[in-house]
Amino acid sequence: MRTWLPFVFWYAQKRSFLSASLRIFHKDRHSVYVSCNESYARDLKIRPYEIAGKTDYDFFPKELADKYRADDKRLMASEKTVKVSNQP
Prior knowledge:
This protein has about 90 residues and is mostly helical. It has one domain (about 5-15, about 20-80). It is about 40% helix and about 10% strand. The chain contains 3 helices and 2 strands. The chain has helices at about 5-15, 40-45, 60-80, and strands spanning about 25, 35. Strands 1-2 form a two-stranded antiparallel ribbon. It is globular, with a radius of gyration of 13 Å. The protein starts with a helix and ends in a 10-residue tail after the last helix. About 5% of the residues are buried.
């Protein structure tokens, strides 16, 4: 199965489409980070290129990383792209 997310991410970056408030990341099917935008990297206190190969366990407490991985599995099973808000 091919994914179009890397192209969308590349295109959005090249077109300066991403606002500073959007946090965007791309993970593979094993919940390993592939890439992210500047805003997401800034929140994690890293540079965007440093995220490749990392998992949520590298950045978050175990309980939160477990939740994010469960969310990933649920979303990947649905095979849909979704917008997730962490706002209350």
